[in-house]
Amino acid sequence: MLRVTKHIAQRDATKRVTYLCHKIVVSSNSNYSTLNHRFGGGSYHRQQQHGSNGQGSGGQHFRSDFLAPHGPKAWTIPPNRGYGMVVVRILRGALKLRYLLLGGAIGGGMTLNKKYEDWKDGLPDLKWLEEALPQGEKWSQFSKTLMEIGGAVKDVIEIAKDDIKSKTTVAALSLSQDESRKKYDNLQSQVETLQTEIMNVQIKYQKELEKMEKENRELRQQFLILKQNKKTSTKKIKKSLIDMYSEVLDELSGYDTSYSMADHLPRVVVVGDQSSGKTSVLESIAKARIFPRGSGEMMTRAPVKVTLAEGPYHVAQFRDSDREYDLTKESDLSELRREVEFRMRASVRGGKTVSNEVISMTVKGPGLQRMVLVDLPGIISTMTVDMASDTKDSIHQMTKHYMSNPNAIILCIQDGSVDAERSNVTDLVMQCDPLGRRTIFVLTKVDLAEELADPDRIRKILSGKLFPMKALGYYAVVTGRGRKDDSIDAIRQYEEDFFKNSKLFHRRRGVIMPHQVTSRNLSLAVSDRFWKMVRETIEQQADAFKATRFNLETEWKNNFPRLRESGRDELFDKAKGEILDEVVTLSQISAKKWEEALNDSLWDKLSNYVFENIYLPAAQSGSQNSFNTMVDIKLRQWAEQALPAKSVEAGWETLQKEFIALMEKAKKSPDHDNIFDNLKAAVVDESIRRHTWEDKAIDMLRVIQLNTLEDRFVHDKSEWDQAVKFLETSVKAKLAQTEETLNEMFGPGQFTRLTHWKSLTEDQNKRRHVKTELDKILRNDDKHIPTLSYDELTTVRKNLQRENIEVDTDYIRQTWFPVYRRHFLKQALHRASDCRKAYYLYSQQGAECDINCNDVVLFWRIQQVIRVTANALRQQVINREARRLDKEIKEVLDEFSEDEEKKSHLLTGKRVTLAEELIKVRQIQEKLEEFINSLNQEK
Question: Which ranges of 256-364 does DSSP label H, i.e. alpha helix?
Fold first, then answer.
């Protein structure tokens, strides 16, 4: 109160001084006029004669003439007028000071006005602000109100401070205690009123700013539309600064999972306990509800990197997708949340609960602050039964991994509705950033905290006096009312209303600074700190990668001097080109070569069936008629059932064999690079496994084969000779197989035993005795039937018993089968030789020919079937199957190209890994330099 009294006294004194000065000036003007009339000889008249155009000019002439008059007669002041001279001199000094001040003010004002006009001319056209801001008297009134409020606040604060200091002097001023208390309450009420007015002004300012941003956005959209309609530009769209920085981070994350955290670039790491409101804070900063929610369930299972950028439309997009989600539409928001949840669950493999796989997305929109945030799974203290046993440790390690980056900004989220002592995240943050140089503390759910906690406790938290951890700043936010369907606009309005009416602002000891509240102020602070750290660290990161690149290039030159650095993608493309070239070469194989290969493959596939199921049973039937009848029946059954499918198998095996042969031939080329061998083999194997012959080919082959088998007559000598040759070749091949079976059964001959020091086994010795008895039967009956009679079996047993060899009938039959087959095949060769020159008789007598050549006709029919089948298969291969195989190979190659794990498995070696690392470092360095250039230009 003493201060108030002093202030009032000082103000009264100032008024008195001002009044006296005014009187002096008025008096001086009056005396000046009097003296001018009294002593106005020549100077006054000269002033009138010269036509003085201003008071200042006349005054100047007056002073000159008064002090030193011109002319031959200079006048003097009478003695009795000495006091007048004193007064005149005093007035002269006062008037001189007055005019100097007035002239300086006028000159300075003109100079200031000129500079202001020049500065105003350099400004852009801001007429559009006239509609958004108050004008004229409204603006003057608004400015005056703000100035009055500011002055009043200053006076009140000064008064309040002086009042506290001068409590001891209240008694000296004879003021009663009741009066002091009343004035104290009145001052406190004024402080609360002014605090509320300040909040209202700030909210009004923010709303006006948002309104201006919206209008600016609409004008920008209209401008872009007009510009596009005027001229369609094919110029590449320039990436924003934050997009470029996000790409650098993505490249860096994919460089090496074990890469030193000390070399990582800045990003904002959002950490906190589970259900503390981390995701809600991030959504409030992004102005969209982009993350899935669950009631009490862990939803964030993997790191989510969100790049925020300003843009004309509020959209979101994943890094590996071209689709944009319109965040103003609830349908797109729902799809985005489902996709985020799907990606999170897909990233968790092997029974894990959380994953280190980063999900990258970009959110653009008007008014968003540019920054990169990483949302991490919430820290838990207790695990549920459906979680993996290492979930808690995995989350701790992941959180430490991201926070240990010395360039990371830690956004520490603390739930204000729970006891501070239950927090797990603060200890973890304090371990990674003990000095708090890169930590920003955020208290969420303040609306609940206000109801549950003491306001003084919240004040301590936000002033950094409750937790032992330190931070750059402390902020309080409200992230919703617990309603899942609330929009971000509704949440932000609720937040503003809460802080406007909160008792945290109305209790004198619980006052929180306005810049410490609301998500908007938080996002501004985080963005400002983010870009500051980016500018401080980006140069040294670029230098580090430049040195790494130099070391890798030196190592490459020393190990692979003649090769270019080719990564897995480039090597894969090269291998893909070689494989497709070989597929093209497959179509260039001649028709003759295809038919020869198909003929050989068909007979290899069909020969065993022909001998075992058709030729041998028919030839051992006993007569020519029964032979032909059985052959017709068996051939038709074969053509209707197994033959078409077996033919397709032979065709597919031939196609596969020829393709592999081309691949093997390519390996012998001098330009062959064996680094592709594993990849080529895997592609061919997978393509062959997938390939199936067209089903309609079997039906087509069945018709052709049945029609061919209907022809039973050999038409000319050349065909007859070819059939005889085919028969002899086939029988000899079968006889060779039979001889091998007999050698295994009876052991080597005597010469082989002597030269190779081999001996017979007991079984081989026994079978040799059985063979001797069986040879006797065949010598006695050259046309013996394929089976042994009971009497013959008994005779063989008794003969062996005389030699003390005991065998059963099954043992004798097993030995008889290959022995009789060799005997039959040798007879078939003799018949083929006899039939070689019997075509004339056959052509004349047909089936009634004296020489039995039915087996030649059978093999001619089989030969014809194989020939027409090979021709049909050749056409299918060239016209259809080779192209289908080409298509399947391309599909396999496309699938492999998208599978990085498979490419890493198939393309291995130091050459690949070193090239991959070098290419990656170059990409990161180039993106860093591009980002630095853009960052410098923005400065």
Answer: 278-286, 330-347
Return d(Cα 892, Cα 684) in angstroms, integer.
9
Whether the Cβ atoms of residue 315 and residue 325 lie closer than 8 Å to each other: yes
Average of per-residue pLDDT values in the chain: 76
- According to DSSP, the residues that pair with 362 across neighbouring strands are 307, 317
CA-wise closest residue to 820 among 897, 735, 898: 735
Give the integer Cα–Cα distance in Å for 875 and 243: 56
**910 Cβ contact list (under 8 Å, min separation 6):** 559
Dump pLDDT digits (tens) for 161-180: 455 444 444 444 444 566 66
Q: What angle do CA 626, 629, 632 make, to 5 degrees?
A: 145
pTM above 0.70, yes or no: no
Distance CA 36, CA 346 (A): 103
- Listed in order, the ranges of the chain carrying CATH 3.40.50.300 are 268-483
**CB-CB contact of 439 with 307 (8 Å):** no
Burial of 229 (C-beta count, 10 Å sphere; 0-12/13-18/19+): exposed
Nearest to 438 by CA among 447, 446, 448, 429: 429
> What is the maximum span of the chain, computed from C-alpha positions, in angstroms?
192
The DSSP 8-state label assigned to residue 264 in this structure reads: P
Distance of alpha carbon 40 from alpha carbon 38, whole angstroms: 6
Q: What is the pLDDT of residues 609-649, one digit of tens each?
A: 999 899 888 887 767 788 888 999 999 999 998 999 999 99
Q: How far apart (Å, rounded) are the C-alpha atoms in residues 656 and 685?
A: 10
CA angle 336, 340, 343 (to 5 degrees): 135
CB of 2 closer than 8 Å to CB of 166: yes
Instruction: Report how far residue 399's alpha carbon sits from residue 274's, in angstroms, rounded to the nearest whole number.
Output: 13
| 860 has a pLDDT exceeding 90 | yes
Query: Quick one: pLDDT band at residue 241, thresholds 50, 70, 90?
Result: confident
Q: What is the mean pLDDT of residues 315-323?
A: 88
Start-to-end Cα distance in the chain: 52
Residue 246 has pLDDT above 70, yes or no: yes
CATH of region 268-483? 3.40.50.300
CA distance 723 to 604: 17
Identify the bridge partners of residue 317 per DSSP, sorted by sequence position. 362
Tokens of 361: 């997305």
Whole-number Å distance between alpha carbons of 216 and 131:
12
